[in-house]
């Protein structure tokens, strides 16, 4: 924030979350600034939904943005409350403030609290204020129930003191934040796009290396697989069932307990990610010791999820036995390779040609797809000589490490940008920086600045 100047004079607000404020600012309780209104829904009011990300928007739009269905109340809407444009709504079970601004007219469930300003305000300014971290912390400290996911009520909100300055100054602060946060958001989006490109590059590196090899001049032959095309002439093409065995896991809900049951860790779909294992939350299950061997994971097993989104079919990683006596559920296959490296089999199943095969043979449902063990066993594998496999794996590892390092830099950049965004909002709405003289720069200058920053 060093690039921004402070106000000439400050005074102690006497409010813990607000601290010192410009000496011409005032403070009022939330009760004096906003009143709770309970106007019955009007005929033709569209049902609205409150969200942390989008504010208060029509439920139909929420469905489109989230690509999901939202239950509309077909009857019983007589008790719904009318929401006017620029009202604020206290949403339910919020952990991030939960005071949402509405740009729409409509109605909400009576479980929501509708707030209407009692004094002339800039709606944009208070939209930012209610999302700044100091205010959220003050709201959270007003009740322990908020941390348990319970509703914020009007009494808790109204007891918190809020800052108030001239309408002109509020509008300037809101315009400044609109401009600056849009700049930051654009830079964040560019980093996200870069991360997606890196993921595509990672797939391309793996796919080319395990299907074409490292020597561009090697003689090629028809693989015999229509979607795979040509492969190096000296490579073997073989079905997975001739190179590995497949172990199914414990069927969900099956009782394998007895008098001598022991508790063992069990991998679920959530633990098996694309290229790595997430072992932070591994559940335990009781099982008879005699049943343990049937589902036990062994070092070097290649794990693969049975299903998921189409672009995640075949998602898996190599099990290196970081947990003793670990078993797996039936939605996670354990593939045990013979005469080839686990890492080679893992790379083959992560390649684009294998993903395409899984997609072709998967059983499709509304949003998900699943692969049967029979189809996995029929996956065509490409097997170069052992020394060539080692060279290719070494090459892939080096390339993936470089891509990962670049991705981590982008992730760090996103974190820093988000922190800057949060700090900037808090500083502006609480009067820690003076932006009264701010004027939006020329559009061309802004684009040049963004390119330089990116």
Automatic annotation (TrEMBL):
CDD domains: RMtype1_S_Eco933I-TRD2-CR2_like. Its EC number is 3.1.21.-. GO terms for molecular function: endonuclease activity; hydrolase activity. Keywords: DNA-binding, Endonuclease, Hydrolase, Nuclease, Restriction system. Residues 235-398 form the Type I restriction modification DNA specificity domain. Belongs to the type-I restriction system S methylase family. This is Restriction endonuclease subunit S.
